[in-house]
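Exam review. A common question shows you a sequence with its structure tokens and asks you to describe the fold in words. Practice with the pair below. Do the first one on your own.
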Amino acid sequence: MSIQTHVDSLTAKHAEIDKVIAKEQHRPNPDTIRIMHLKRQKLRLKEEMSKLETRH
């Protein structure tokens, strides 16, 4: 797998987590703990993408 392919995969996962967060936030009683965990996952993906892009 090339670095760019991996970055593209991480970008897709990042966007999917963004959608899940938005959906959770629009629920009548959002699960703030779940949102917090999702945001952490999203941040880790962003950091990994940045590392890969600087090496590329």
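Now try the second one, then compare your answer with the model answer below.
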Amino acid sequence: MGPKLVSKRSEKTGILYSLRLLPIGGYVAMVGEDEESDNPNAFCNKKVWQRIIISAAGSAVNIAAGVILMLCFILASSAIGSTVIAEFNENAISSSCGLELGDRIIEINGKKTPIWNNVIYEISRDGTEPMDFLVVRDGEKTFIEDVRFGIESEDGIDYGELDFKVKREEKSFVNVIKHTLHGSLLTVRMIWESLFDLISGRIGFESVSGPVGVTTTIGNAAKTGLYSLLYLCSIIAMNLGIFNLLPLPALDGGRIFFQLIELIRGRPVNRKYEGMIHLAGILLLLLFMLLITIKDINGLIN
């Protein structure tokens, strides 16, 4: 945004690249994206599979940026948490339900827990009810049923309360890659499940944040240090990428949805009607963002 500092048009494709005074975000306007064109390089004249790749590219870059930030987050940490129980909190409920010191947690409720973050997430999300653990104890797998945890509430939502600490692991190349990949996959899963929780009503509208709320959260994370900021930015980057892939009008996922229909039918949906649907989607999205922004500002005032 802002005044153009430098620009160059490709002689081969005719694409104009420019750098603005305030390089905040990015914008791509493609010939033939929302209209017909005789230009052979126009978006509308590309093959369907090429258009699908182009439409998904932005989200893919967001997700890739999130993975890179996750790697930086792991590298910035002083040590890495294992899944081996090292210490129980005072009056820990889980220790009276079968968990023991030295247990290495490998599954919770049938879900793999390759890293410490998985353990935290499973207990936080489903620990309000009894949980089944699969652990390695004295070199053998042991199944423990009905492990219970305390319950804590925040913004009207109940969470399982973690009541033990784990051993730390020294960083190594293998460990860093393992935690980066599994941490990224867990983040993607958290985002998807949060969307379903919002639709199902498990979490309310008050838990959704827009630009104002996100900026406030980033500011608070920055005050606590680079470590927290990197993790938050990683989640935001992946969240943007995944949200943009949702099959909703005006989003890249909505365009991909129509492109898949074209791929199946062998001919495109009438561009006039598709354009109207995307326009309606933009208006609804702007209205939704306005409501969230008002909610965030009201939260700051109060």
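Model answer, second protein: Helices lie at 48-76, 116-126, 173-200, 211-224, 226-244, 252-265, 271-301. The mean pLDDT is 83. Full marks require stating both points clearly.
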